[in-house]
Amino acid sequence: MLKTELFSIGDLRISVYDFNSNGDILPMHSHTINDNHITIVARGSIELTGINWKKDCVSGDVLDFADGQDHEIQSTSDGTRIINIIKKLQA
Length: 91
Hints:
The protein contains no helices and nine strands. The protein has strands at residues 2-9, 12-19, 25-29, 37-43, 45-50, 53-58, 62-64, 71-75, 80-86. A hairpin with a 2-residue loop joins β1 and β2.
C-alpha cells in the first residue's frame, strides 16, 4: 500500500511517499514544467523504470527528472520512503 502526504511551505511543494512493502508501486507517469520534481530516496530502496531504461536506487540517492520523462517507481524493500520536491511552480 502506498501512502502519500503533501506539504506546502511558502512556494515550496513537497510530497512524501511511503511504500509499506517490497513491490509497492507508483505507476508510470511524467511531469510538465509546472510539476516536475527532484526525488530523494529517504530510506529503503527503489527500482526506477522509464521507457527503455531502468535504475536501482538506495537511501541517499537524489534523482533529477527532465520535463516529460516517463517514470515508474517500485519499492524493492519494506518501509521505503521517497520525498519529491517540486522544482518550479508556474503562476
